UniProtKB/TrEMBL annotation:
Domain SAM-dependent MTase RsmB/NOP-type: start-end pairs: 106-427
Lineage, broadest ranks: Eukaryota, Metazoa, Spiralia, Lophotrochozoa, Platyhelminthes
Binding residue positions for S-adenosyl-L-methionine: 216-222, 240, 268, 290
Family assignment from sequence similarity: Belongs to the class I-like SAM-binding methyltransferase superfamily. RsmB/NOP family.
Pfam families: Methyltr_RsmB-F (PF01189), NSUN5_fdxn-like (PF21148)
GO biological process, one term: rRNA base methylation
Name of this chain's protein: SAM_MT_RSMB_NOP domain-containing protein
Catalytic center residues: 359 (nucleophile)
InterPro entries, A to Z: MeTrfase_RsmB-F_NOP2_cat, MeTrfase_RsmB-F_NOP2_dom, NSUN5_7_fdxn-like, RCMT, SAM-dependent_MTases_sf
Any single Gene Ontology cellular-component annotation: nucleolus
C-alpha cells in the first residue's frame, strides 16, 4: 500500500519527479487540514481514516486521497501544472472546498516541522556562485550564523552560514516546495539534507588526501560530503550490498561530480576484506559506520508512515503485538550494527578514527551499542573522543557511561531530525585498566603521579 515516488508519479501523471516531491512535502505539511476536508466531504472515514468505499469510485488508499486533494486544493497559484490525475469523483466531492495555503502552512508550525537545510556541493559549485544565484532568484541571505533564529526566518530568506556544519544553508520550512524544484538543487549544486545527517563526516574529520571507508553508503549524502573533504588526492570507498540502492548510489555520485574521488563497491561490508587487498586496507585511516537502523528519528518519515497507514482504529492487542515485534526488530538491528562497528574497529590496521551514527532515537541502537564496543576494544587502543564538547548542547543519555562523549540531535533544541553520533579514536599508547578508563574520557594519570610521590 505504500507507494514510492515513481509509482505515485505515474498515478498522478505529474511531469517530473521534482514536482511530485514538492507536492508530497506540501501534503505532509498540510496533513491535518487536508484530512479534515476529506472527512467533511465524506471521502475518508472519521474512525479509521481510510476511504469510505473501495469500489473504484474513489481513490483506493488514504495516501492517494491526501496527495490528490493537495494537488487539487493547494496547488500554488503560479503553477502551470493542471492536475489531470485527480480522481473525477474526488474532484466532484471537493468542489467548492477552499483551503488558504498561507494559513495551512503557518498552522503547521509545530516542533516536527523543521527548517529546510541545504548543503553546498563544492564538487560542482563554490559558495559565492550559489549565493549569487540565490540572490538573483530573490532569496535574501542572513549572515549571522550564531545569532540567527531559524524559526523566525521568513519565506525568501535563509541563513548563509551554520555554526556547526561548513557550507550549510538554512531555509524556512515554507520554502521547501520552492527549493525542491530550484535549478541549484536539480543541477546538484545544492544537496537537500537534514543538518544532523551532516554531523558524522564533520566528526570524522578526514584530512585532505585521506582514504575513507563509508560502510553503508547509499543514498550517498555523507559520501558526497566526505568526497569534498578529502580533496582530489583522497579517496572514498563507498560500500552497499543492495543492488537497487547501489545503482542509485553510483548514478548519484557521478551526477554530483564525485566520480573521480569515490570508488563504489557492491558487497556486504562485513565481507569487505575479501574484496580489498591488504595494501588497500592499510591505506584506510577513517571509517564511517552509518548502518541500517529503525529510522525512528526521522520525523518526516513517521508523519508519512502515519499518512500511508491510516494509523487509527488499532486495538490494544494489535498495539501490544506491534510493540513486541518492534522490540525484536530493534534487537536484530542492534546486533547487526554492533557487528559492522566491530568489523570497522578490527579489520583496518591503519584506521585512526571511526564514527558510528544512526538516525534512531532508541538507546538499544545507540548508547548500548557504543558502550558494548567501547568496553570490548579499550584494551586494543580504542577510546571514545568527546565530540563538539562546547558547541553542541545535546549529549548522549546519562544512564550510560559513554553518554557524555556522544552527540544526540532532535527537533526540540537542535531543530533537526533525531540522530546519534559517537566517535572512536585509536590511542596506541593505552592498555589494560588505564585504557578502559580512558575509553570513557576519564583521567588516567593521577595514579602515576601518586606513585611518583611515594
Amino acid at each position: 500500500r505504500r507507494l514510492d515516488y515513481r509509482q505515485a508519479g505515474r498515478l498522478l501523471e505529474l511531469p517530473a519527479p521534482n514536482a511530485l516531491r514538492a507536492l508530497v512535502c506540501r501534503a505532509l505539511r498540510s496533513l491535518n487540514q487536508l484530512e479534515s476536508a476529506l472527512i467533511n466531504a465524506g471521502v475518508l472515514d472519521a474512525a479509521t481514516g481510510r476511504p469510505v468505499v473501495a469500489d473504484g469510485s474513489l481513490p483506493a488508499s488514504r495516501f492517494e486521497c491526501l496527495v490528490q486533494a493537495c494537488d487539487l486544493l493547494l496547488r500554488p497559484a503560479t503553477s502551470s501544472h493542471r492536475p489531470p490525475g485527480v480522481h473525477p469523483h474526488l474532484a466532484e466531492r471537493l468542489r467548492g472546498v477552499r483551503l488558504d495555503s498561507d494559513t495551512t502552512d503557518s498552522s503547521q508550525a509545530q516542533p516536527h516541522q523543521l527548517p529546510r537545510y541545504a548543503r553546498i556541493n563544492r564538487l560542482l559549485a563554490q559558495p559565492a556562485e550559489v549565493r549569487a544565484r540565490l540572490s538573483a532568484d530573490g532569496f535574501v541571505a542572513i549572515d549571522d550564523a550564531e545569532g540567527g533564529d531559524v524559526d523566525s526566518l521568513r519565506p525568501g530568506t535563509y541563513l548563509a552560514a551554520d555554526a556547526h556544519i561548513p557550507d550549510l544553508l538554512t531555509f524556512p520550512a515554507a520554502d521547501s516546495a520552492r527549493l525542491a524544484v530550484h535549478p541549484l538543487v536539480t543541477g546538484g549544486a545544492l544537496c537537500l539534507v537534514d543538518k544532523a545527517s551532516c554531523l558524522p563526516p564533520v566528526c570524522l574529520q578526514p584530512p585532505p588526501g585521506a582514504w575513507v571507508l563509508d560502510t553503508c553508503a547509499a543514498p550517498g549524502n555523507k559520501t558526497l560530503q566526505l568526497a569534498a573533504m578529502v580533496g582530489p588526492a583522497g579517496r572514498v570507498l563507498a560500500v552497499d550490498r543492495d543492488a537497487q540502492r547501489f545503482c542509485e548510489l553510483r548514478r548519484r555520485l557521478v551526477a554530483m561530480g564525485a566520480g573521480d574521488r569515490v570508488r563504489c563497491l557492491r558487497c556486504d561490508c562485513l565481507q569487505l576484506g575479501d574484496w580489498l587487498s591488504q595494501r588497500c586496507r592499510d591505506r584506510i585511516t577513517h571509517i564511517l559506520v552509518d548502518p541500517s537502523c529503525s529510522g525512528s528519528g526521522l520525523t518526516a518519515r513517521s508523519v508519512e508512515r502515519q499518512a500511508l497507514d491510516g494509523g487509527a482504529g488499532a486495538g490494544a492487542s494489535d498495539a501490544e503485538s506491534a510493540a513486541a515485534k518492534e522490540q525484536q526488530r530493534l534487537a536484530s538491528l542492534a546486533n547487526f550494527q554492533a557487528m559492522v562497528l566491530r568489523s570497522a574497529l578490527t579489520d583496518y590496521p591503519s584506521a585512526r578514527r571511526v564514527v558510528y551514527s544512526t538516525c534512531s532515537v532508541h538507546s538499544e541502537e545507540n548508547e548500548a551499542v557504543v558502550q558494548e564496543l567501547a568496553n570490548s576494544f579499550a584494551d586494543k587502543g580504542w577510546r571514545l573522543a568527546r565530540l563538539m564538547k562546547s558547541s553542541w548542547p545535546t549529549r548522549g543519555l546519562s544512564a550510560f557511561d559513554c553518554g557524555p562523549m556522544c552527540l544526540r540531535a532532535g527537533p526540540g533544541t537542535d531543530r533537526t531530525c533525531g540522530f546519534f553520533v559517537a566517535c572512536f579514536k585509536r590511542d596506541t599508547g593505552g592498555s589494560g585498566a588505564a585504557a578502559r578508563t580512558a575509553a570513557f574520557g576519564m583521567r588516567k594519570s593521577s595514579g602515576r603521579r601518586r606513585n611518583r610521590k611515594r
